[in-house]
Design brief:
This protein is an alpha/beta fold. It has one domain. The protein has 8 helices and 8 strands, in the order E-E-H-H-E-H-H-E-H-H-E-H-E-E-H-E. Strand 6 and strand 7 form a beta hairpin. Helix 1 runs parallel beside helix 4, helix 3 runs antiparallel to helix 4 and helix 7 crosses helix 8. The longest helix has 24 residues. Belongs to the 'GDSL' lipolytic enzyme family. One of its GO terms (molecular function) is hydrolase activity, acting on ester bonds. InterPro entries: GDSL, SGNH_hydro_sf. This is GDSL esterase/lipase isoform B.
Length: 294
């Protein structure tokens, strides 16, 4: 996204020393979910709270700094107060809520939890709107059933695996989440007519790649590059020697894999998906990322 907009990569909010936030800040956290109590201690509500602190502190600092030579470099690294109402607020969250629910409850319970998950999402957007946010770019969730991890650990496979090796009930769950998310985006538009909301169908982009991996130069979508789940659970970045065999070493051709570690997409796959979603053909309304703020 930043490459398409010809902007530098966003610095992380928690990596503030020496960072430049003039073009935005990244509040994303690995494993984060909308609701608290999931894989990460940084749910969406906490990320919004961090943003509110960021906005307050940067505005205070910006107004304190003068334009003299000593302070100018520091001032130039801060967002201007007026930038916050012009910024593009992007969201890609929700899949971990589904994944955590599937690991600890039943699929039926996860389906029942979707309205509450999205209610908390609604509240987060409202908080941002209340402090001046006006332009939102919202991704739906991907085909969670197509992750190699899902296939490996899904036991009742008979009749529930599609031609690509994806777990159909889990993809049905993701699609139900996306249906309700899209309905909520419509509700947000009605409640906040001064704001702009773009709903982005990441699910379709990712499933198109999975359905055409070999034609796009990738290996089977069920193969992954790093770590191991087959018999021995070894996280990516670690190795183990079992009966003389080394498990966990990364593959030699990561750019040919859709999945990096069985859960996350590879850089090559993410770039492929990004090209599909940035130009508006899978968005509602169908606007490219470069025009989302106009």
């Amino acid at each position: 996204m930043t490459e398409e907009l010809k902007l530098p990569y966003l610095n992380a909010y928690l990596d503030s020393v020496g960072s430049n936030y003039r073009h935005g800040a990244n509040f994303a956290v690995g494993g984060s979910s909308i609701r608290p109590g999931g894989f990460s201690p940084f749910p969406l509500g906490l990320q919004v709270a961090q943003f509110l602190l960021f906005k307050f502190h940067t505005n205070t600092l910006f107004n304190q700094f003068s334009n003299n030579r000593t302070e100018q470099p520091f001032k130039n690294s801060l967002p201007r107060p007026e930038d916050f109402s012009k910024a593009l607020y992007t969201f890609d969250i929700g899949q971990n809520d589904l994944a955590f629910g599937l690991q600890h409850t039943s699929q039926e319970q996860v389906i029942k939890s979707i309205p509450e998950i999205l209610n908390q999402f609604f509240q987060a957007v409202q908080q941002l709107y209340n402090v001046g946010a006006r332009v939102f770019w919202i991704h739906n969730t991907g085909p969670i059933g197509c992750l190699p991890y899902s296939y490996i650990y899904y036991e009742p496979k008979k009749g529930n695996i599609d031609a690509n090796g994806c777990v159909k009930p889990q993809n049905d769950l993701a699609q139900e989440f996306n249906r309700q998310l899209k309905d909520q985006v419509f509700q947000l538009r009605r409640k906040f007519p001064l704001a702009k909301f773009t709903y982005v169908d990441v699910y379709t982009a990712k499933y198109e790649l999975i359905n055409n991996t070999r034609n796009q130069g990738f290996v089977s979508p069920l193969e992954f590059c790093c770590g191991s789940y087959y018999g021995y659970h070894i996280n990516c970045g670690k190795t183990a020697i079992i009966n003389g065999t080394v498990y966990g070493n990364p593959c030699k051709n990561p750019s040919q894999h859709v999945s990096w570690d069985g859960i996350h997409y590879s850089q090559a796959a993410n770039q492929w998906v990004a090209k599909k979603i940035l130009y508006g053909s899978l968005s509602d309304p169908p606007v490219p990322i470069g025009q989302a703020c106009f």
